[in-house]
Write a structure and sequence with these properties.
323 residues; mainly alpha; two-stranded antiparallel sheet
Length: 323
């Protein structure tokens, strides 16, 4: 990362840290949503962007991570910080099962993507019938007083959630930057470009693809825990739906798959523009069902046609900074 990129990143981080001091709750909620999608997009980018593994069922890890931590909190009184580790462990086990089935039996490409969708759908149907987690009626967390901060139970004002997801987003960026420039990252990129050539060079492709799945599933589980305690309600049909997975992957695709800042930029563009469209329509009293989905499709079409590598690579090249 060159000096210009570091200065730009430092300035952006300073603005984000100071944002709650001069922004209202609405702006803070939008910023929280941007950072959430930046974080979970970064998690998905580890698999697809770094290792070339297309997952269309990442809602599996969001949902399981959310349900595990929330159910332990609601039913057993276990603090979210303890539930977080249980969520990570279970999501990594699910990722390991999917990875083993796929990589051991040579399932790749679109068939691997279909396998991830199938696991997410099976899990959705299963949670519809698990009463301990609320079944199809949903699981609800008690909404505590939002004016007081309770870090132990992860309850507090909007600024607390904002700083939590900011910490996670910055941490994910740092972790991904370190991984991408490590031996593991170079092996992932070799596998992404040509798996047979990577095998010929002596790279254990099974091992390193499994590592990519495990890292991505663990990170996504963390986003699920945040989702549960931020929104306070979970429904299987909502959180495991394929549309949730599509929301996760759109940011990296539009921003730039395989880049560090692409998921962040993509999350910003999609969230801000989609929210602006919703607000404009609401101002004029117009309600169009599915308008966000239509907007996502239009943006994706424009980017694929004119910026096939995403927005960030083109922007970074014009600014003279590394991707």
């Amino acid at each position: 990362m060159n000096q210009r990129a570091m200065l730009l990143g430092g300035a952006l981080l300073a603005v984000l840290v100071l944002l709650p001091a001069f922004a209202g709750n609405y702006v803070l909620s939008v910023a929280t949503l941007i950072l959430y999608f930046a974080f979970v997009g970064q998690a998905w980018n580890v698999m697809m962007g770094f290792a070339g593994l297309l997952s269309l069922g990442h809602s599996l890890y969001v949902g399981v991570g959310a349900y595990v931590a929330a159910a332990l909190f609601v039913n057993l009184g276990i603090a979210p910080w303890a539930g977080l580790w249980a969520a990570i462990a279970i999501c990594m086990a699910l990722g390991a099962a999917i990875g083993f089935l796929a990589f051991r039996f040579g399932i790749s490409g679109v068939y691997f993507a279909l396998l991830t969708i199938a696991f997410a759908e099976f899990t959705r149907v299963g949670f519809d019938h698990i009463q301990w987690t609320g079944g199809s009626g949903g699981l609800f967390l008690k909404v505590a007083q939002r004016e007081q901060m309770d870090l132990l139970n992860f309850r507090g004002p909007p600024a607390m959630y904002y700083y939590a997801i900011l910490f996670l987003a910055v941490g994910a960026l740092a972790v991904c930057a370190g991984l991408l420039r490590s031996r593991v990252g170079y092996y992932w990129q070799a596998i992404r470009e040509n798996e047979e050539a990577a095998q010929a060079l002596g790279i254990n492709t099974f091992r390193y693809k499994m590592i990519a799945v495990l890292v991505s599933s663990a990170m996504t589980a963390v986003s699920g825990v945040f989702f549960a305690f931020y929104y306070n309600n979970l429904f299987p049909e909502q959180i495991f739906h394929i549309s949730r997975s599509i929301e996760i992957i759109l940011g990296p695709i539009i921003g730039g798959i395989g880049t560090l800042f692409g998921p962040i930029l993509g999350a910003f563009v999609l969230t801000v523009l989609a929210d602006s469209i919703t607000e404009v329509l609401a101002y004029f009293g117009v309600e169009i069902p599915g308008v966000k989905q239509v907007f996502y499709g239009v943006v994706l079409l424009v980017v694929v046609m004119f910026l096939p590598h995403g927005i960030w690579p083109t922007l970074a090249r014009k600014m003279g900074i590394s991707k």
